[in-house]
Amino acid sequence: MSRIGETFAELKRSGRGGFIPFITAGHPDLATTELLLIELAAAGADIIELGVPFSDPVADGEVIQRASERALRSGVTLRDALTCVAYAKQHIDVPIVLFSYFNPLLKFGEDRLAKHAKQAGVDAVLVTDLIPEEAESWTETLIQHDLDSIFLVAPTTSDERLARIAQRARGFIYAVSRAGVTGARNEMTRDAEALVQRVRSVSDLPVAVGFGISTAEQVREVWRFADAAVVGSAIVSQIEKMTGSSDLVGRVGEFARSLLALAPVR
Amino acid sequence: MQKPPITRSEPDETGHWGKFGGRYVPETLVAPLEELTKEFTRARNDPHFWRDLNQLLRDYCGRPTPLFHAERLTAQAGGAQIYLKREDLLHTGAHKINNAMGQALLARRMGKHRIIAETGAGQHGVATATVCALFGLRCIIYMGAEDARRQALNVFRMRLLGAEVVTVNAGTRTLKDAINEALRDWVTNVHDTYYLLGSALGPHPYPLMVREFQTVIGREAREQILSTTGKLPRALIACVGGGSNSIGLFHPFIADEQVRLIGVEAGGHGDSLGEHAARFHSGAISGGGRVGVLQGTMSYVLQDANGQVATTHSISAGLDYSAIGPEHAFLHDGGRAEYIWATDDEALEGFRLCAKLEGIIPALETSHAILSAIRVASELPQDDAIIVNLSGRGDKDVQLIAELQT
C-alpha cells in the first residue's frame, strides 16, 4: 500500500476526516515554502498538495494565479518545487502530492520527472489539465516509479467516465466541489455530496473534496460525506496577506489549525 | 525511408492529428466538450443546418467573396499572377464571421443563450458580437488590456453591438490571457454558456469545427481559380496566428500535391524568445516553438526551458499568440505545408504596398502575407497563379499606423 493509502487507512481506523492543505511552491519564496510544508504537517495536515507555478493556470482563480505569478517572477521552477519537497521530507513524513499543469512536466520529460519526484519524496502527482483519456503513458510512467496518480472528477463528469477515471486513479480521487475555478466560496452546494456518492458507487478509493473550501464549518461539512477536505486558496490568501511579516509561517500554521477547530478529536 | 506525402488531414475520433490536438482541459470541461462534439457532428451531417448557414453567409455576410486578380501587385512581383481572396469584403471586415455564424447557429440548436468569446485583434469579438445581436443572444467578450488599447475602435464596435467587453489584465494582457479568462468563465458557467472560440485551436472539437466553418474560403477559391485560369494555383499564402484563415484556405487543396501551402507567422522585431510569434521559426535564438500543451491542445508552443509559456510580440494583435492550431503542427511535421515569417517592418511594408498598388487597406495580420506573396510569385512563371488570403480589412489598424508615422 502506498503512503497515501496508509494515511487514509489510518484516518478510517481512527474515524477522522482528512485535512489536505495546498500551497504554491515559491510563494512568497522557496525558503518559506520549505518551512510552510513543515509547519502545515505540524498543524495537522494529513497530506499536502504542492502547486507547481505555471504561466497559464486556466483552472485557477485569482488568488492562486497571483501566487503563481509571484513565484514565476522570481524564477521558481519545477526543479525548485522538488527541492522544497526533498528538504521538507527530511523533517516530516506527511505524503506530498505534486499539483501541476501538464506543460512544465512535459518539458521536464515525463520519465525524468517521475524519477526525480520519487527521489525527492513526492508520493503522488495530480495534473490539472490531463484527463485520463490523454494520460495513458503518463499513468504508466507513474506506476513504474511507484507514484500515485490523482485525477479530478467534477459534478459534470458522467457516470461512465467516473468509472473510467476510477480505474486509472491511484491513492485517492479528488472531487471538485462545483463547476468553476479554484477559490473561496461562501456556501457549499449539494453538488459535492452527490458527486462523492456517485464516486463511491464505482470505486473503493478514498475521496477528497476541494475547490472553494475556506472555513472550519465547510471542512466539517465535507467530512460528513467525504474522506478528506482540501483547502487551497484560503491558505494561499493567508500567505499573501502575511507576506513580508516575520511571523508568516506561524500565522499560516495558526490558520490551518483554526480550520481543524471543529474536528471531534485530533 | 521517405514518408508518404500527406494527401488528407483529418483528426481521429478524439481530435488527434497524429500526436497533435486532443483535449487537455480541467475535468469540468469534458462534459460540455463532449456535448459540443455530439451536436457539431449531428449538425455537420444535417443538410438543413448547412442550408441555413449558407443562406446566412450569402444574405447577411456577403458570400461568396470575390477572387480578385491583383494586377499591380503582380507587376511588382514580375512573376506568377497574384490573386486575392477578398475575405475583407465580408460583413464585419474579416473571415472571422464564417466561424462565428456557424457556431452561433450551433449554440442556438443547443439552446445556449449566453455566449462568451476571446478576441485578439478584435475581429473575432466583433464577429461574435454581431451574430449575437442578430440572434438576440447575450454576449461577453474577453480581450487582453494591451489588445484593447491597440484596437480601441473594435472595442467600441463590440459595445455598440451590445456586447459586454471584459478587459483582461493578467499575464501578457493579450490573446492568450483572454483565452485563459474565457476558459475560466466557461468552467464556471458551463450549464448555460457557449464558448465561441475564434481560431482553429483549443480542445477538440474546436480545431476541427472552426476549420470546417472556414473551409468555405478554400472551396470557393478553388472553384474560382479553376474557372478563371483553368488550372490549380502553384501556391496559397496566408498569415497564421492561431491558424483559422490559413487552414480555411489550405484545407480544400491538401490533396492537390502540386499546390504549395505557405503560412506566414509573425516575425515580430527580433529572433529572441519574446520578440516574435513564429512558432515554427527554427532559426530563432530559442529555436522556436517546441511541442507542448497550451489551452487544451498539443501543438507547437513558444516556451522557456522550464515549460513556462513565453510572451510573444507582434505588431498585429491577431498573430500575437504563443501556440498554433494543432492541424498546422501536423501539416508542418508532415511536410505538407511550409511556414515562414514576416517581421513587423515587412508587414508594414506589405500594408503600404497593398494600399498603394491595389487600393485595398489590409489588416496588419493579413499584411504579413503580402511581401511573401510577391517573393513567391517572382520565382514563378507568368502563366502560373498564386492565391493570397486577404483575410481582413485594415480600418482597425489605421490609428496604430498613424501613431507609428508621427
Kindly describe this structure.
The complex is a heterodimer of chains A (266) and B (406). Chain A has twelve helices and eight strands. Chain A has helices spanning 3-14, 30-43, 62-73, 78-88, 102-108, 110-120, 136-144, 159-168, 190-200, 216-225, 233-242, 248-259, and strands at 18-24, 48-51, 96-100, 124-127, 148-153, 173-176, 207-210, 228-231. Chain B contains 15 helices and 14 strands. The N and C termini of chain B lie far apart (56 Å). The interface between A and B is large, with 41 and 38 residues.
Features:
heterodimer; A: 266 residues; alpha/beta; TIM Barrel; eight-stranded parallel barrel; 8 strands; globular; B: 406 residues; Rossmann fold; six-stranded mixed β-sheet; four-stranded antiparallel β-sheet; 15 helices; 14 strands
In short:
Chain A has 266 residues and is an alpha/beta fold. Chain A has helices at residues 3-14, 30-43, 62-73, 78-88, 102-108, 110-120, 136-144, 159-168, 190-200, 216-225, 233-242, 248-259, and strands at 18-24, 48-51, 96-100, 124-127, 148-153, 173-176, 207-210, 228-231. In chain A, strands 1-2-3-4-5-6-7-8 form an eight-stranded parallel β-barrel, surrounded by nine helices.
Helix content of chain A: 40-55%
Strand order of the largest sheet of chain B: 3-4-14-9-10-13
The mean pLDDT of chain B is 96
The share of residues in helices of chain B is 40-55%
Number of helices of chain B: 15
Q: CATH homologous superfamily name of chain A?
A: Aldolase class I
Which chains have the largest interface? A-B, 41 and 38 residues
Give the secondary structure arrangement, pairings included:
The complex is a heterodimer of chains A (266) and B (406).
Chain A: H1 3-14, E1 18-24, H2 30-43, E2 48-51, H3 62-73, H4 78-88, E3 96-100, H5 102-108, H6 110-120, E4 124-127, H7 136-144, E5 148-153, H8 159-168, E6 173-176, H9 190-200, E7 207-210, H10 216-225, E8 228-231, H11 233-242, H12 248-259
Parallel strand pairs in A: 1-2, 1-8, 2-3, 3-4, 4-5, 5-6, 6-7, 7-8
Chain B: E1 16-17, E2 20-24, H1 30-44, H2 47-61, E3 67-69, H3 71-77, E4 81-86, H4 96-109, E5 114-119, H5 123-135, E6 138-144, H6 145-150, H7 152-160, E7 164-168, H8 175-188, E8 193-195, H9 206-214, H10 216-229, E9 235-239, H11 244-250, E10 260-268, E11 290-294, E12 296-301, H12 326-333, E13 337-343, H13 344-358, H14 364-378, E14 385-390, H15 398-405
Parallel strand pairs in B: 4-14, 5-6, 5-8, 6-7, 9-10, 9-14, 10-13
Antiparallel strand pairs in B: 1-2, 2-12, 3-4, 11-12
Helix pairs in contact in B: 2-4, 3-14, 4-5, 4-9, 5-7, 9-11, 10-11, 13-14
